[in-house]
Amino acid sequence: LIHFYKRIMLYCILLDFLSVLTPSSLLPSSCQSRGLCSSSNLRMPVSAYSAEERGISNTQSYKVFIKDDTGPISPFHDIPLVANNQPKTFHVVIEIPRWTNPKMEIDTKSPLNPIVQDTKKGKLRFVANSFPHHGYIWNYGAFPQTWENPHHTDPNTGEKGDNDPVDICEIGGRVAKRGDVLEVKVLGILALVDDGETDWKILVIDVTDPKADKLNSLEDVEKEMPGFLNATREWFRIYKMPDGKPENEFAFKGEFKDALFAHKIIEETHVYWKQLVGLSEQSVDGGELETGSVTVDGADKRISRKEAAKIFNSTEEFECGPPVDPSIDTWYYTHLK
């Protein structure tokens, strides 16, 4: 029996060592080697919410559902945009942890809008590694209760919205997990024009990050994290080039705009979201978008708690799936040629 416990202790030490070498977010949370047992139901920094994986990892059945203390909800519609009015902070939902490649996104067209991996021609999508980057260089996600209206031409970019929640790049030191709900403050914004659509990228930082008190503006980011703004702009410029596409373009000649400008975009897209779900006198047709919410009073379409549980329970329990093709770790030099 003593030998058995010694072996267990050695095994745990080895797993902890391996977890240092391999960022935990590179694997589905239930497949991480942090201990002998793990759970697919994860608590997160904003304690009112949790994330639960369903389906088989690395397949099209894999989904991440967001829950409040009562049950599954929509991360698109049910999480309040504003976390705190004074000082002004917001909620964000992390779709893609830093350094990872799977192109995860809130499924805006399915009930409860779980996080899924995007597909193209029936295959799971991964972002390519444009040297010297590996995967996404921030925790990437979206603001809940925002919508880039595809019926509205933005005067800043001359293009219509991309029909998605507004994207965020969380630049703190912690590597987040899929489905994390964070409270953040806004630092600035970049106006990407992606395939002829307005695609705002808002720079934020988790309010619990050790650097959060020092970062209140773009100037602070440049001082504390020199080169990071340039690296962010360059990442968005080149990230589609390995797939044979041209480099992306920007409004404002690629210059970042400050937090005040970003707040205006957030407020504007929140108004469009209200129009989308029926909280405004002026309504907008969302087409194929799923606008059902569990907790939003006054919304045109509601999903009951019983219906939400049924949607969640109709998916498979989580299990680890096939390994990812190692080719996703390849570096590409297309942008340097």
Q: Could you give a quick summary of the protein structure above?
A:
The protein has helices spanning 2-21, 218-224, 228-238, 259-277, 305-313, and strands at 41-43, 50-54, 63-67, 72-73, 82-84, 89-96, 104-106, 115-117, 119-120, 123-124, 129-130, 139-142, 167-170, 181-194, 197-206, 249-250, 257-258, 331-332.
Descriptive overview:
This protein has five helices and 18 strands. It has 337 residues and is an alpha+beta fold. A five-stranded mixed barrel has the order 6-12-13-15-14. The chain has a four-stranded antiparallel sheet with strand order 1-2-3-4. A two-stranded antiparallel ribbon has the order 7-8. A hairpin with a 2-residue loop joins strand 9 (119-120) and strand 10.
Main attributes of the structure:
single chain; disordered N terminus; 20% helix; globular; 4-stranded antiparallel sheet; 5-stranded mixed β-barrel; 337 residues; alpha+beta; 5 helices
